[in-house]
Structures are given as structure tokens and as C-alpha cells.
Task: structure prediction
Amino acid sequence: MQVIFVGGASGVGASCLAIQIADQWIVVDAGVRVDRKQDPLPDLALLEGKDVRAVFVTHAHADHIGALPLLHQAFPTVPIFASRGTALLMGVMLADALKVMTKRAVEEMELPLYPENLVTGMLAQVRPLPVGEPFTVPQLPGVTIHASRAGHIAGAVSLGFAAPDGSLVVSGDISITPQRTVVGAVPPPLERCDLLVLESTYGSRLHPNRQGEEQRLAQAVADGIANGGHVLVPAFGLGRGQELLLILQAAQEKGQIPDFPIYVDGLVRRVCDTYLLLPETLSPRLQRQIRKGYLPFSGPNVTFVRDERDRERILAGPPACIVSSSGMLTGGPSAWYAARLVSQANASILITGYQDEESPGKRLLDVAEHKRDTLEIGGMSVPVHCQVAKYSLSAHADGAELAGYAAALHPRRVALVHGDDEARAGLRTLLTETDVLLPRDGMTLEAEEKRAGRHARSSAHTPSTAPAQTLDSLPTGIGAGVPFDYQHVEQLWRVVRQVPTLRIVTARELALIWYGEATEETTESILDTFAQDYEQRYFIQQHALEEAYRVRGQYEETPGDFLSDLVGSVLLLLVSQESAKPVF
Ligand SMILES: [Zn+2]
Ligand SMILES: [Zn+2]
Result:
């Protein structure tokens, strides 16, 4: 096995990885750098002469897909595997990238990276990537592929590849703490893999409490409106923009902040439309809302700006909140609004995400820290009088969460990518039980041949001999009124394990056991807690059955050991209390 770090090894941008496994080459992601001071592309020349058989895409952010049309130009017949969510979002994101490139070509004489026909040609090569179940593709004989959900944004996956000569996991960008749009990451089931390629964007940080930060932001928007001015929240079009809309609307619905108009402009709006087509990639709560016909991103206070001419009218109107891309004020409608709002003392600009060193968003934060007092934006130098503040709503795991993800996989080695030197050095100190590599772009890693028998199981497996029982025999209301929490998962598992043949349980059944009643609210509390248990030590989420979990066996070490302690037992598929039926 061999890995070439083609791009994105020591920073955010131009992610691209080439892997030789079972004597075949695979490429994972091909993105661009958004910082316009650097070369935008990964060094695709490193792939020259390689017999690339397949390309895999982790998610649809520009730093992972922006160079795919050029990779496709070099390997025009090679299939590109992406989850359904990523495939749809890639179309939206690359159409936007083409628009931006055309505009820059006209206004700044900057050459576009590629023409439209390369984008359409590349999208025509996209093939489905099943998530949550192992699969093989004819292009890669001998390789089993595992794609598991990565949190982060809709459609994002982590990828695992296993072959006789080795196994590796590529985390892609991951989040662990549940967000409003997506639940947290689950590592691919390749425990003790030879190599984990792990993102490290915030490897040296601990995120503040998410709920607290969301409340702080909602309050700041409300305060800005009460101040009599407009509040601009620049947001990345894919992911952050949707989170912001849900945060602000939830705070309004709960009466924590007053009603005020929220305008949504730019790429954020188009991605909202696409998210509605992808309920299966979203949190259980959003899935239910969308399937019942609700439009969670466009409540009564929200207006999508579909005509550029409305922008002047919005700024001339009563105080309102504007959620708009781009997130770093580098272009898009947010730069247009910012250029007009920065000089107004009663206006506010609230920054919620990562800002490149050279971006106008970063320079605006410098103003807030009194490092300067004017902002160059849209070709103008504007004095800054508006309120400026920053909020941390990351879609990336922090250092402790990344270390937890690595610990769940027990890899032989970890290569840290997608982070600056400080982030990678910080994360390295947290990974004490494994070899840690800090690759540079262009570096090749030769993995040692896999040692025979390393994956052999060591502990004995005892078949269960307990008599068959049913769910009806289990106690209900064991939580005695205490809200179900992460720390109670094991207790609940011990109770469910009293029925050794019971392997699939639903959230409603678990709610009945813990709370004594299965209402929407109690079921949701079980679902939300399980969504945080990304190690899935006791209950494993089932992808084929909505809101159902497999109960881990008592002697089970890895997910592959399913059934190992069930020899001689009758297996019951218990989806609801009324419909228990034997499956063999
Ligand atoms: Zn990303
Ligand atoms: Zn990224």
C-alpha cells in the first residue's frame, strides 16, 4: 500500500490524496485553495503515468471538489464515486464556481480554471456511493469500500478501503457534536486499520459549548436589530448558512428573541433548496419535518432573495437580518451588503466561521481589534463604524473529538492533514497511543506489508444459552423520571441485553423502557443522545430501518462480529412490539 499526499496535507485547501491499494490507484478528492494568493490547485502532475481506476469524493466543499474537472480531464473515463447528497451538491457548487470565475474573467482578467464543458463531462462520470454498508466496484477487484457518515455537511462521508495488502481510513472533514442540520460522524468499521488519514482543522482547539454560542449569536442579531440597523451574517453557502437559518428561526419560535425579517441571499439560498431534496442526509428531526411537508429553512420570517434588484430595497427598508454567502466576504452578495453597511454605526456584521489571513472578513475582525480602521472591499476603502463580532459555530471536530475518533479506530499510524502547523502539532500531542505523521504536499508514504494474523481475534466467543425472552418481559420506566443522557446508554443496554435474542430495537421501544412512555418527545431524547454516541459502543444505528438500532452483543469486539455470540439462538427482528417475526 502506498499513499501520495497530492494536496491539502499541511493546510486547508486543495485536498487530494492518491492511494495504491491491491496494486491499483485510487484518488480521494481534488479540491482548490480559496486563498487567492496561492496556487489554487493540488499538484496533479504527481498522478502522471498512474493507472487511476476510480475517484472517490468525501463531500462537496470547494476545497475537496474544485479541481475535479481537471482531474477528469486527465482521466476522462475514470468513474467518480460520490454519495447522493454530495453528487447533487457538487452540481450546485460547481455551477456557482463557474459563475464566480466568469465574473472574475470579465472584471479582473483572471483566467478561469476550466470551461463549463469539463464540469458537465465530470458530473456525467459520477456514480453512486452507498453509505453505511460495505461494497465493491468492478474497477477495483480485491478492495472493499466502506463509506460512513462524517457529520460536517449534508452528504459528507468518511471512506475506508480494505484489501489483502492493507487497510486505511480517510476521515474527510468531520464533525462529532450534532449540528442542527446533520448528526455527528461514525468512523468506517475498520478498527485497527494500517493508516488513518485524519483532518485536523481545529486540532489544537476546544470548541465552546455549541448551545451557548448559538444563543450568543441569536442575541447579538436581536440586539443589532434593536439598535435600528441591519445585521449581516456572512455565511459559507454550503452548511453554515443552513445552520444559521435554523438557529435564528428556533430562537424566534421559542420567543428567546423577537420576530424580525431574515433575508437569505446567494449560494446559501440555492443550497437550502437542494437540502430539501436530501432528507436522508439530514438530522432525524429535519427528516421528519421535510417528510411531513414542512420547509424548515423558510419559516414565516424568512425571505429568499431571488432578484438582485431587491437588495437596494432591503437596505432601504426596516432593520433586518441578512444571511448571505460568501462567508469570508471575498465575493458574492455578502461583499455587496458589507461594502454598504460597514460605515453605518447602527449596522452589525457578525462573523461565524473560518477566515483566511488575506480575506476581507479577517481584515474586518482586525478592525474590531483596533488593528486598523478602514476596510478595502469591492475596490473601495471604506471607514468602519459598524459593530463587528465573531462567533464559533464550527462544522469541524475539535482536538478532543478528533482524538476520540482516532481512538475508536485504533489505527497503526495516523497521518494528520487539512490543518496548519499549529493545529497539527496540537493534535499530535493528544494522539499518544499511535504513530503520528505530519506529511507535506507531494510526500509519498510507503506502508509496510500487513503482518499476518494481526487481525486475528484473541478472545473466546461463548455462545448464548439463555432461554428466549421477548421485549414484553423487560421493565419500563427504568429512568425514574431522569432525562436520558449519554451516561445512561450502558445502563439501558444492560437492560435490553436481558433478552439475548433481541438484536434490533427502535427508538420508541427504548423510550418506553427508559421513560415508561414512548411519545414524540421521549423518542427524540433517545435519538438525540444516540446521535452523540459516535463510537456506538452499545447500540449501532441501522441504515436500512429508520430510527432502529442493533444491540451490540456481549462478546462482540468489532462490528464484524455480529452474530458471533448468537450461535444456537433464535434471531428476532423486533421492529415494533406487535410485529415480532423470526428471520431464521
Ligand atoms: Zn468541508
Ligand atoms: Zn475541507
